[in-house]
Specification:
By secondary structure, the protein is mainly alpha-helical. The protein has twelve helices and two strands. It has a two-stranded antiparallel ribbon with strand order 1-2.
Length: 370
């Protein structure tokens, strides 16, 4: 039974990658059939809000009050605009212009982008004499190079087509692919910024379920405003098939479910354990898309995706070594503190014993006692 308990986190993360893969594949199919990506973002955020809001209210009932103030509200508002509204619109527009495989591969850049942003903001420290810092820098460069390769390199088709001699660089006819990759890169940047913003948000509002529900609600309103601005035709809001309806329902509930799964796994194994499973989603999507959706896979995209995954694991390795060293330093510090406390307690015991051994009447008074 203990062995199964140890595998629960692994099973949960594998299930989560299948959920993410399902979102990418199903949404890609619906977008190609005519689903408007901006309208889809509004429906997805609205459904996620409906799922999380009752749970947030139930969670608040167990607590006396939640006070976050104007500053905390401002952080949540900023995170909803950049980390959800801008991120989701760029992500699904990029998904429409590229492919489900390329989309899931580009999301593996987020740890590297987060590392760069955290370093610029002073939240990460670099020491060029340490191998872990060098690994994070090299891994980031490989991730970026892989993303550039996915955007600019194409090459021959290796799946669902015979090998044809083609230009290895994208021609002007593939501008949509380049724009899609740029949007996906921007989506990863927005999501990395959202991760960094969780630090001040957690300090202002420790209830993550409440803050997440509030962000989803704000993002629903913001996405609706963006969609109304760009989409003047009211018919764009209409869902024309069960495929589009099912896609919205699945994506909304999957977003809410992923929050709970990730939160539980992070509490059990830590954030690095969660990030290590991200490339599995790319593999799952690539196989399913090639077999069932006959999605074309190019050599340049495959090389770029491989580079992104290798760079990801280099960054994660450097971060893991950093956490390992910090844990060792913390452990040694606690041991030193315990030894100091033990020494102080022993000195106090000796002082108490010496005080008890001294006579109640000092010897200096003995000369006056007959």
């Amino acid at each position: 039974m203990g062995g199964f308990d140890d595998c629960k986190a692994v099973i949960a993360m594998v299930l989560l990658q299948f959920i993410y893969g399902g979102v990418a594949l199903w949404t890609r199919a619906a977008l190609v059939r005519g689903l408007n990506p901006r309208v889809f973002v509004v429906y997805r955020q609205a459904l996620a809000t409906l799922v999380m809001a009752p749970l947030a209210v139930f969670s608040m009932r167990k607590k006396s009050y939640i006070s976050m103030g104007f500053k905390g509200f401002a952080w949540i508002f900023l995170a909803s605009i950049l980390g959800i509204t801008a991120n989701q619109n760029a992500y699904f527009q990029g998904l429409l212009l590229t492919s489900s495989t390329a989309t899931t591969a580009m999301t593996n850049m987020m740890p590297a982008i987060t590392f760069v942003m955290a370093t610029v903001l002073g939240m990460e420290k670099l020491n060029m004499r340490r191998l872990r810092s060098i690994a994070k820098i090299i891994g980031t460069l490989i991730c970026v190079s892989g993303a550039i390769a996915m955007a600019l390199l194409k090459g021959p088709k290796i799946l669902n087509s015979t090998l044809l001699h083609q230009q290895f660089f994208l021609s002007y006819q593939a501008d949509n692919w380049l724009v899609g990759c740029i949007l996906l890169f921007g989506s990863s940047c927005f999501w990395s910024l959202w991760i960094i913003l969780q630090v001040p948000i957690s300090a202002s509002c420790p209830d993550h379920l409440y803050s997440s529900a509030l962000m989803a609600f704000m993002a629903t309103i913001e996405s609706a405003i963006v969609t109304l601005y760009f989409e003047k035709d009211v018919t764009a809001w209409k869902l024309n098939s069960y495929l589009e309806l099912g896609c919205c329902l699945y994506a909304g509930t999957a977003m809410a479910a992923s929050f709970f799964i990730q939160a539980w796994v992070v509490s059990q194994r830590g954030p690095l354990f969660v990030a290590m499973f991200n490339p599995l989603c790319t593999v799952i999507v690539a196989i399913i898309a090639a077999i069932f959706f006959h999605e074309e896979t190019y050599l340049g995209s495959l090389i770029g995706a491989l580079g992104v995954i290798i760079g990801l694991y280099m960054v994660l390795w450097g971060k893991a070594k950093e956490l390992e060293e910090s844990n060792k330093n913390l452990h040694s510090k606690l041991q030193n503190d315990d030894s100091r406390i033990a020494q102080i307690e022993s000195l106090d015991d000796k002082n108490c014993i010496s005080d008890l051994e001294e006579p109640l009447i000092s010897n200096r008074y003995g000369n006056y006692v007959d």
